[in-house]
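Hi R.,

Here's the chain you asked about this morning:
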Amino acid sequence: MLAACSKKKTAAQSIHFAPGELHLDKEEIVNSPPVDVRRKAFGVIYDLFKARNIDDWSSAAKALPQPWRALYTSSELDGEVKNGGFHQYFFNTRCKLLRETLDDLRYLGATEFADIYEKALSGIDVAYYTSSKRDDDDWEKFTSKYADRQWDDLEKRFYALKPEIDEIAAQHIKAHPEEYQ
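And here is the predicted structure, written out as tokens:
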């Protein structure tokens, strides 16, 4: 399944980030609570993408160095799944960062999340989620995918895991400040 999504060419090939463009102050990493550090780190990504007027954030995320990309992909997965389950995640992301997300979860040490995510990937209808002919404004079609409830058990396990993905990401930043400077 992952191979079908990763074959698409993206604008990421033309996006580059200069050394130092993504940066957190070491003292800030050391002295701030973990949740604040993760929030500030994601703010660096957000501010950079906004400053560059990037429209396709998923493609831009592919060009980020892995420590920073892992913050983006893990946060996107966490937010989408908690808001509407795996169906919403796959729908909204159009499968653009499937392999990267799996690699990034493992990179951060979120192995239980990675295992659940990998199982969710095995049931994905790549053609549906990546189709350019997909009608994004068809609410009935979108919600009909929830009827099969294929990811219910995985979502329950995902929601119950502790620490949460954002906490794991914050712990990673605090444990590896050199990767974010």
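One quick note: The chain is about 65% helix and 0% strand.

Cheers,
M.
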